[in-house]
Amino acid sequence: MSEQTSTPVVRRVDARHRYEILVDEQRAGLTAYRDREDRRVFFHTEVDDAYAGQGLASILVTQALDDVRAAGMRIVPVCPYVAKFLKKHEEYADITDPVTPEVLSWLDAQLGR
């Protein structure tokens, strides 16, 4: 396991439809999304094994959701990690929409699945 030597940095990478978390300028994880009108649909979150156990996924998702709120958008938590995070962090309930079969079909089409 790597030890953090600097503060993790989260950046939104619009061209790749994701937020990345960097540790010492190295990508340690990401949370991927697609935008549907005013909703940001999160569908996948991962942290590299070398950075596991450092709380990076929580930092990443917190900053991503704060960015969604600041942009005046809403959250749709298809990603199991984001959904679990939202159950523990009710402060995002006011901007969270449910995952519906229609959203899942739309997401599958977006991702070519």
TrEMBL record:
It comes from the Bacteria. Residues 11-97 form the N-acetyltransferase domain. This is N-acetyltransferase. Coiled coil: none annotated. PROSITE patterns: GNAT_YJDJ (PS51729). Pfam families: Acetyltransf_CG. Transmembrane segments: none annotated. InterPro entries: Acyl_CoA_acyltransferase (IPR016181), Gcn5-rel_NAT (IPR045057), GNAT_YJDJ (IPR031165). It comes from Streptomyces filamentosus (Streptomyces roseosporus).
